[in-house]
Amino acid sequence: MPSINAKPGPVLGIETSCDETGVAVYDRGRGLLAHALYSQVELHAEYGGVVPELASRDHVRKLLPLIRQTLAEAGMAVADLGGVAYTAGPGLVGALLVGAAAARSLAWALEIPAIGVHHMEGHLLAPMLEEDSPEPPFVALLVSGGHSMLIEVEAIGRYRLLGDTLDDAAGEAFDKTAKLMGLPYPGGPALARLAETAAPGQFRFTRPMTDRPGLDMSFSGLKTQVLLAWQRSDHGDAVRAAIARDFEEAIVETLVIKCRRAMQATGAKRLVIAGGVGANRRLRAQLAEAASRDGFKTYFPRLEFCTDNGAMIALAGSIRLHAGQCNDPQIRVFPRWDLQSLSALGTAPSNSGVETAWT
Asked: Alpha carbon of 284 to those of 206, 278, 288: distances in Å?
């Protein structure tokens, strides 16, 4: 491995965990310098979901042009980079390997440090891209296509799982419900748009696991209730919109109840909301109302940084690189990776075995 003797300057972030290719350049002193995102929605729409092999191949096709584009927008040459960050997991193994291979190769050639970033830590830190950014300690609601988690953040890298989904995540429930009612892919945003056209209260769906203590979540039963309601209906447009509205209300109200419980249990005064479902307008509005009633503050990333993106990876990588962490030169990815296994800043390497200190 080449000798690395300087603290990193601008950090290139690469995100390829699923079906979006994201690239960004983040500088600790100047903030986000440039970012670009390519979505594979049209590629996978024909199949009604992500096809892993097609996703991997499309990342290969798009990643290098996006890196060149982002560097040009930042007014930089590749030699100006001081570090590289890439999503090392969790995600689709083939897609992850595309970003990891490109990042590790670039870091090796430039003799600069590189670090694999946990995808969910990227989401968790995304609100720090904003001017009004949260400082730990805080509670984070991470709600994306594959995750619905409540995390207590004592410090960056010191995470405690408060509640998790026992089956379908909120984003999965949105997508699957939309698909069963014949809405176009991607289903979650389409369902949310349709829900805005109907008045609430025509269907009454349960708020799963809110009638018992605890912060765990479950949305598969709610999805089944929607299926039964749809099967018994006339499949008309009005019914589709009404189901969409009341299903969304059930998801949002459940998440709000769980967040309020988490804030009360921890005594935290700051709540971070991140991940794709964090872009949902009704969720944002109801959490803002809850915060006003209960006396805590909410932090959201801007809408473009709720979904997968390179900016959150560049930021998270920059924080860890400046704290003296980097990876060895081997290309490793982790399709499954426990967020709680990450090391805190300034501590020994995590038990994932991929971090090494550098000076």
From this structure: 21, 7, 6
Alpha-carbon distance of 70 to 75, in angstroms, equals 9
Give the whole-angstrom CA distance, residue 69 versus residue 4.
27
Gap between the Cα atoms of 297 and 313, Å rounded = 24
pLDDT given at position 142: 96
Q: Going edge to edge, which strands form the sheet with 297-299?
A: 158-164, 148-155, 138-143, 270-274, 297-299
Q: Are strands 138-143 and 148-155 parallel, antiparallel or unpaired?
A: antiparallel
Question: Which residue do the tokens 């709610």 mark?
Answer: 222
Rounded mean pLDDT of 65-83?
97
Residue 156, by phi and psi: left (phi above 0), alpha (psi -120 to 50) or beta?
beta
Taking CA atoms, 211 is separated from 64, 170, 254, in Å, by 50, 18, 10
Token pair listed for 34: 């440039």
Sorting pLDDT into bands at 50, 70 and 90, what band is 345? confident
Tell me if residue 315 falls in helix, strand or coil: helix
d(CA 199, CA 176): 22
Structure tokens at 26: 């983040």
Cβ–Cβ contacts within 10 Å for residue 147, how many? 21
Rounded Cα distance between 122 and 142, Å, is 10
For residue range 266-303, what is the model confidence (pLDDT) as tens digits?
999 999 999 999 999 999 999 999 999 999 999 999 99
Report the 10 Å Cβ neighbour count for 108.
14
In DSSP notation, 18-50 reads: SSEEEEEEEETTTEEEEEEEEE-HHHHHTTTS-
